[in-house]
Amino acid sequence: MYAMDFAQVGANIQEQLDRKGFTQQSLADELGISKQVMNKIIKGNKAINVSELAKIAHILGTTADELLTVQSEPVLADSLSFMGSIDDEKTLENINLMRSAIDEIHMLEELLYA
Questions:
Q1: Separation between Cα atoms, residue 6 and residue 3, nearest integer Å
Q2: Which entry of 4, 31, 69, 102 is 20 to 30 Å from 76 by CA?
Q3: pLDDT by residue (tens digit) across 52-98?
Q4: How far, in Å, CA of 61 to CA of 69, rounded?
Q5: Where are the alpha helices (DSSP H) in 21-88?
Q6: CATH of 6-113, one of 1.10.1740.10, 2.140.10.10, 3.10.20.310, 1.10.260.40
């Protein structure tokens, strides 16, 4: 099963970094981006396109398929961590709906401008 959100992809990238002994900075340098942008990718707060994913996979010596694979537990982006803990089930459901809609908009934008 493939990841439908960028947080899972970011977690998979971080796992590969850890396995290979690479840092976010070293991967950012190879990609020609800042560490801050790399950190956003890892946290799932920045959309990446297919060519970026392929470059990351190549640098890490893995496959895009591996980076897209869903792990056993879903990973959530911590972009709302400044708000504290959200315990209300309805609020969590609404946030997840918004995240899904935003992810779909990003994918459509990438297709439109590819």
A1: 7
A2: 31
A3: 999 999 999 999 989 988 766 555 555 554 455 667 788 878 887 88
A4: 16
A5: 24-31, 35-43, 50-60, 64-68
A6: 1.10.260.40
Instruction: Determine the longest span between alpha carbons in the chain, in angstroms.
Output: 42
Question: Which residues contact residue 98 at a Cβ distance below 8 angstroms, ignoring those fewer than 6 apart?
Answer: none
How far apart CA 102 and CA 108 sit, in angstroms, is 10
pLDDT in tens, 3-19: 567 888 999 999 999 99
Q: CA torsion angle for 74, 99, 30, 49 (degrees, to 10)?
A: 110
